[in-house]
Design a protein that fits this description.
The protein is mostly helical. The chain has two domains: 106 residues, no CATH class; 101 residues, no CATH class. Helices cover 38% and strands 4% of the residues. It is built from six helices and four strands, in the order βαααααββαβ. The strands form two sheets. The protein has a two-stranded antiparallel ribbon with strand order 1-4. Strands 2-3 form a two-stranded antiparallel ribbon. α2 crosses α6. The longest helix is centred in the first third of the chain and has 40 residues. It is flat and about 70 Å long. About 4% of the residues have low confidence.
């Protein structure tokens, strides 16, 4: 057999890339998701601390007001726990935490997630006759704001607003979702559309219709398009669960999907 030409030897390395190689959008968004999740966890720890402070303040005030003038002795006997300050704070912190989280949800700070129980593809909702309605309403529902789910982020198709993670990305020119076709007004990612789009029906929404049956669109002042607030405690609970799901999804994901060949190794010693 003849000698092997050095140029034919596969000397590519795996798992490396040139230092000046651009990062992919997937890498960039994964980094942002990691940072946002860390920010959410710190924020939730601060909310828990705030709830403990409120619980402690209430308990100290109760004792100073003479409701329980004699502090309980230290220690925990058999039977019900002694009503020490520590025990009473521990017993009431969860109730205060719900209210603190609800107040935080009301002010809509930080990162938002849509909570999907299983998968958005199993979401059930009555679909409006969009082909008939869009020439009349001009896809006004595509101006409404909503958050994407971890499932949407993992797919990486539906775009989100980097300034307000993870709200649907919208255009400044007309306020509509970036996936709305500006000519036809139809959705260009309909097959992978988020859960809110799948379960939403505009027939009873005064932001869209003055009279749905008569096909009379609602006026278009900005106030009409503001999102309605739902129960804040429920909203806070959903955000906490969605935050946990996002954290787990990132921990269980991998930055590299398949083996990647990098530049050839240097032959220099």
């Amino acid at each position: 057999m003849g000698e092997t030409n050095d140029d034919d030897v596969d000397e590519h390395t795996y798992g490396t890339a040139p230092r000046d190689a651009p990062i992919t959008r997937g890498d960039f968004e994964r980094a942002i998701r990691g940072l946002n999740t860390a920010d959410l966890l710190v924020r939730d720890q601060l909310l828990h601390l705030a709830a403990q402070v409120v619980a402690l303040t209430d308990e100290v005030t109760r004792r100073l007001d003479g409701v329980e003038p004699k502090p309980a002795p230290p220690g925990t006997p058999a039977g019900p726990p002694i009503a020490t300050v520590e025990n009473m704070v521990a017993l009431t912190t969860d109730d205060h935490l719900q209210q603190v989280r609800a107040n935080d949800a009301y002010h809509d700070h930080g990162v938002s997630f849509d909570l999907v129980g299983t998968t958005k593809y199993e979401a059930i909702g009555e679909s409006p006759p969009c082909e008939e309605l869009i020439p009349i309403c001009q896809a006004r529902c595509c101006r409404l704001r909503f958050a994407l789910s971890t499932e949407d982020l993992d797919e990486g198709i539906v775009r989100w607003d980097y300034g307000r993670p993870y709200m649907i990305r919208q255009r400044e020119s007309d306020g509509r979702c970036v996936h709305n076709d500006p000519d036809t007004r139809f959705c260009t990612v309909h097959a992978v559309r988020p859960r809110p789009c799948r379960v939403y029906h505009c027939k009873d929404d005064p932001r869209i219709w003055t009279d749905y049956d008569k096909r009379i669109p609602a006026p278009e002042p900005n106030e009409i398009l503001k999102q309605f607030k739902f129960d804040l405690v429920e909203r806070a609970q959903q955000r906490t669960l969605a935050m946990f799901n996002e954290s787990e999804a990132i921990k269980e994901s991998y930055p590299e999907k398949v083996p990647r060949r990098g530049p050839k190794q240097s032959k220099e010693p």
